[in-house]
Design goal:
mainly alpha; Serine Threonine Protein Phosphatase 5, Tetratricopeptide repeat; 2 domains
Length: 174
């Protein structure tokens, strides 16, 4: 009986070490993906983030970073998919909603963009870039009063350069 307990404990320790090694490996792959991106090797970056996700399917930062690379490369549907996966893992991740909202904006899906950006803001009311991009989406659908309100909020949150980038002074009659 003691021998069985010893082997069971040894197997449990070995399994715990293997799981730890897997997550360490995912972290190393994640870091390699970031380095590849910094070098301009975007396909290599995607490949390393993908391997990190294969190693740890709940690695939310790998999904978010891969989504950002896809967005940068203009593959907005893949960016939406990765941000959706991140949201499935952590429905309270404001950055994932913001990023997916921005990808929807790039796809011309302005109402879906507004919905995601609104969700990001509900999670983090101080998320200035969510207000920024929601203002852009509101402009696209002709909701200029709402856009102006978001611009003012973003400015209040220290994103005042937004006003110059959007150049929407006088959107409202206020």
């Amino acid at each position: 009986m003691k021998l069985f307990a010893f082997f069971a404990a040894l197997c449990a320790l070995s399994f715990a070490q293997s799981a730890s090694d897997l997550f360490k490996s995912a972290e190393e792959l994640f870091k390699a993906g970031a380095k590849a991106y910094d070098r301009g090797d975007y396909n290599g970056s995607i490949e390393r983030y993908s391997r990190a996700i294969e190693t740890n399917p709940r690695y939310i930062d790998a999904y978010l970073n891969r989504a950002a690379v896809y967005y940068y490369l203009g593959d907005y549907n893949a960016s939406v998919a990765d941000n959706s996966a991140a949201i499935e893992i952590d429905p309270s991740n404001a950055a994932a909603y913001k990023s997916r909202g921005v990808a929807y904006y790039a796809l011309g899906e302005y109402n879906q963009s507004i919905a995601d950006l609104t969700k990001a803001i509900s999670i983090d009311p101080n998320f200035d870039y969510a207000y920024h991009y929601r203002a852009l989406a509101y402009i696209e659908i002709g909701e200029l009063e709402k856009a102006a309100k978001d611009v003012n909020t973003a400015c209040d949150l220290d994103a005042c350069d937004l006003m110059q980038r959007l150049n929407i002074d006088g959107l409202t009659n206020d």
